[in-house]
Protein-associating with the carboxyl-terminal domain of ezrin
Amino acid sequence: MGSSESALRKDIEIGEEVPRTAAVYRIWSDVFPCVEGKRWRRTLFVRRFAKTDSNETRCFFENGIKRLRQLRHPYIVEYVASSVGVDELSLLTERVNMLDLTVESLLPIEVHTGLAHILSALIFLHEKAALSHNNVSPSSVFVSLDGRWKLSGFECAQELHNTHHWVQSDFVRSVKDSMFSPPEDELMLKTDIPPTARDAFAFGKLIAYAMPYIQPYLPAETIGALEEISRCLTNADATKRGELASVANSHEVAFKNILLVIVDFLQTVHLKTREEKAHFFRNIIDWLREIPQVVIGRRLISLLLSRYVLLEQEAHSTLIPFVVRPSDLENNEPVQGLLPLGEYRRWIVPELLRIFHVHEISVRIALLAHFMLYIPFFMRSQIENEVLPELLLGMRDADDRVVCASLHAMAHLVPLLGGPAVTGLIHAKSFADGAPKKAGIYSLTNDRSPQISSPIDVSLRGYEMTAERKNEPQSSSSYLSRMLSEEDLADDCNVRLRLMSQTDGIHNELEQSHSIAESRELQGNDWCVDWDENEKEASPVFSSSRHEVLTPLSGTSSIASYEADINCRKPKFEIGMNYDMPSMNKSVAKGVDVVNYFADMEPVFAKAPSLIERLECQIAAKVKEANRIARSRFAALSEDEGLSEGVDLGAWEAEVADWDAD
């Protein structure tokens, strides 16, 4: 495409050409959507000059580029770059769409708002720039990506004080749409007319052009005002058309809708008074519900999350929490949010990610204030690649407020990414779960679910701990406190009652066991041998109690019956009862007849010994050691030792004979 290609297009990727049915081809030879620097979306306009084109034609295009480069307005197409060559001219602008190709896909509120945009741009030209456009038509009106209508095509523009109009130029006649040309241009009249009359006439025709797309949806009052303005502006007498600014002021309802109110306020929120801000943020949520979701996404998201809004305290209490959350979840559960999840991820998530790259203290703190509301709806890749690096950067900032907010936000990422991904460290288990297993404290049912034996059944443990109790006396309540925290039973009165009755039984057993242990020290060597044999036979009486499971008590009658049952099953120790063989056999038989209520249950094997089991092992080891010491103390002397020392065994043998006779 000539020498201009290297100057303008070396960093541009050109897309598919705009359809040739667009009215913009009345002026330009080619129009392409493109991407500049693999980042910015642009539109490229190209005009190829034929050999028959005069220098006047080239001057018109150069005039258009000059005016567009000078003008800066929200509703005028943004100029980016241009290149003028011998054979062609190129103009690079922001990405825009052709109005005549897009108008049918726009919603009525967008079309109505677009008319207000073009009116605002024309008033700016007439009153601020002192220019007249002279070619307002669908070929010079474009739609930006955010839905705004923008004015371009300034090839025929001229200053207001210039009374000469190029109506007789071949180029002007070729590019202007006859439908939007005033009668004086059709008749090629050179009479003096107001310099803004042509733009007023063209805008009146533009209203008529858009009327079919908005008439069925707007209020009758608004439609009537628009029709009246269109008739006034298209008057054949140019002197009776009036100025666009005065016409707009006299018919305020014609170009007013809720979208325009919100946009205008958000763009100038920093200039509003405190009362105006309070009223706006108090009602904006209800206003937003009246606007279609697509329009909110295209037109309002960037304004609702703009810097000025993020810095408003009123917005943080009502508006921002409503905006940054979706209106439903993936399971269609309703939530107090602005957009559904699909539209939320399309419009709001990219805007939030863009704000994360703004390195300003107030903006970052305001953004992180609602971090937990929106971060669960981000993709994992977005969190890892964009959000997490920005939070790490904030943690190293010199401002303590940014560091504090960043650390709070990092905590919310742990459930989403995991600890190692957030901290970047190798994690090892340093803490154990010491919480009590409440399922084992309460009663167990007859179902076949996994069961945990009760830690309260400690009859045998109390007996085995007798030797240790001699040196370290403790109450039964202190013993239970090691097994179970009292706080775990605060909500279960039945279990508390059961514990009290079981504690009394344990206390009695411990006292009886203590007396037995003392009597053992008074007996001889043969007494110890008999006791070891009897202990093995009597062990089932106690071992059976280890597998009994307590059930919750309901009512006083159940408590009484339970205490009676405990007293019946509680072993009673007396001095010398171990030498009573009938009694011992009876106790053995009684232990065998004990009904095993859990015989049909599947055994459950713990993967690791619990704290209580480890305590049992330690206690059993200490008891075993105490028994060994007792046996060694009462062991009989060897024959050689007895003879060497001259010990008289007659009295000892006589005493043993008396015991046997008894």
